[in-house]
Design brief:
This protein has one helix and two strands, in the order E-E-H. By secondary structure, it is α+β, with helices and mostly antiparallel strands. A two-stranded antiparallel ribbon has the order 1-2. Strand 1 and strand 2 form a beta hairpin. The radius of gyration is 14 Å and the shape is globular. The N and C termini lie far apart (33 Å). The mean pLDDT is 83.
Length: 90
């Protein structure tokens, strides 16, 4: 079963898209069964890559953008990098 997600549309902002993934679908097994997208919890990295790739293809992403959330004042704009294998920036 493909990675399942719910689409959300911001009223009046047609150029901004948002989805929330669910645990349904995906390639992870055991305690991570379903559509786990995190490399940071101990899941099999190949399963995480397969889940991410499936979601990226379903949504038509060219790049996977991901940051580690921290409290601070740094802002990153217009990232060109593809962080498909995990967040590298905070």
């Amino acid at each position: 079963m493909p990675v399942s997600y719910l689409s959300f549309h911001f009223p009046g902002l047609t150029h901004i898209h948002c989805v929330f993934t669910t645990r349904q679908g995906g390639h992870s097994t055991g305690p991570y069964a379903g559509a786990n997208l995190s490399f940071d919890v101990g899941d099999d990295p190949q399963a995480v890559r397969a889940n991410r790739d499936e979601l990226r293809q379903a949504l038509g992403f060219n790049r996977w953008q991901e940051l580690r959330q921290v409290h601070g004042q740094d802002i990153h704009y217009d990232l060109e990098e593809d962080f498909f294998s995990g967040a590298e920036l905070e």
